[in-house]
User: Which sequence fits this backbone?
């Protein structure tokens, strides 16, 4: 039986720690719960927002409608061969706890994605990625319920239309489905990816000479804890901006003017630029405005330092975008979902 609550404070349901309220709030613990909810007047008469861990949201104001917290739980092996295993995780599982579950089983493929905040259901929506790995590389399929009639549909990798921090669920199918579970094809035989970022350097500092997947995970965790603030200390949503992709011509023009430009070549010839580096060059590390700030250790992260409002964070992000455009002629794109 579902319980629909009225006038709920969402401060603990978003990692920015923004104090906003919604008209109605409900937690979904099963697909049956969701199908029951669909039949309710509150559901059918109000705007709806589905959330998981609230780690990629910025509320600019109160939400005039129904917030649905996806609490679906469960992890199990679907199938396996001598080399591969398909693992299915319910959408409400905490992402990092799911990664640890896989590590404990010696299933490889997710170790570079350790300590990313949020829930499993958000991982394909965002095509989350870190340290040279994206979800699409290990994604098998997902299941989702239609928000109109509750009908369950399976989506293949192709149907998800993955892009850089993008999927069809952020575009054509935005707000059309409740993701219920995601399946991943992982490896039993370890194939490590340690070439991106500072993983190898961290492994050396850890004095690990023959790393396994747990070593890589620990290295990633160490790096992330060094660079990224704990949301319990300073509310944040991790990387606030996407790393911009530019043509070879634009890259070469920028490189000639800024020799220290941080960039990574992409398949197809374009380059991905480090947005954090661009922001830092504008002298914005540690910059404070209206109770929000650019993080002192990672300029890609905006933080809540003084119980600020969502509008304060949004205004700061606009200021950062303007300064980067003035300096480099590039328009940064927000990675965080803006609500309101």
Assistant:
């Amino acid at each position: 039986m579902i319980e629909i609550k009225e006038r709920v404070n969402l401060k603990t349901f978003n990692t920015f720690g923004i104090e906003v309220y919604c008209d109605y709030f409900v937690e979904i613990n099963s697909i049956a719960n969701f199908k029951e909810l669909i039949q309710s007047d509150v559901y059918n008469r109000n705007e709806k927002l589905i959330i998981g861990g609230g780690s990629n949201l910025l509320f600019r104001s109160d939400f005039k409608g129904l917030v649905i917290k996806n609490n679906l739980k469960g992890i199990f092996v679907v199938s396996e061969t001598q080399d591969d295993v398909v693992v299915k995780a319910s959408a409400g599982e905490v992402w990092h706890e799911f990664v640890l579950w896989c590590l404990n089983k010696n299933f490889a493929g997710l170790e570079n994605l350790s300590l990313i905040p949020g829930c499993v259901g958000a991982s394909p929506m965002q095509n989350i990625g870190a340290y040279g790995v994206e979800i699409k590389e290990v994604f098998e399929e997902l299941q989702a319920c239609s928000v109109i009639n509750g009908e369950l549909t399976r989506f293949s990798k192709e149907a998800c239309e993955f892009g850089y921090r993008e999927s069809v669920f952020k575009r054509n199918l935005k707000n059309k489905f409740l993701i219920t579970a995601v399946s991943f094809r992982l490896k039993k035989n370890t194939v490590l990816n340690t070439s991106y970022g500072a993983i190898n350097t961290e492994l050396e500092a850890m004095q690990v000479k023959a790393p396994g997947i747990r070593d890589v995970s620990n290295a990633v965790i160490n790096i992330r804890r060094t660079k990224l603030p704990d949301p319990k200390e300073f509310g944040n949503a991790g990387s606030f901006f996407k790393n911009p992709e530019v043509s070879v011509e634009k890259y070469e023009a920028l490189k000639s003017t800024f020799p220290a430009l941080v960039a990574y070549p992409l398949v197809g010839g374009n380059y991905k630029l480090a947005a954090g580096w661009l922001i830092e060059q504008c002298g914005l590390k540690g910059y404070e405005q209206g109770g929000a700030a650019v993080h002192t250790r990672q300029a890609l992260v905006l933080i809540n330092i003084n119980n600020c409002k969502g509008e304060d964070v949004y205004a700061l992000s606009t200021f950062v975008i303007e300064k980067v455009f003035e300096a480099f002629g590039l328009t940064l794109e927000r990675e965080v979902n803006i609500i309101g």
Q: What stands out?
A: The chain has a mean pLDDT of 94. The first strand starts at residue 5 and ends at 9. Residues 12 and 335 are 21 Å apart (CA to CA). Residues 5-70 form a domain with the Uridine Diphospho-n-acetylenolpyruvylglucosamine Reductase; domain 2 fold (CATH 3.30.43.10).
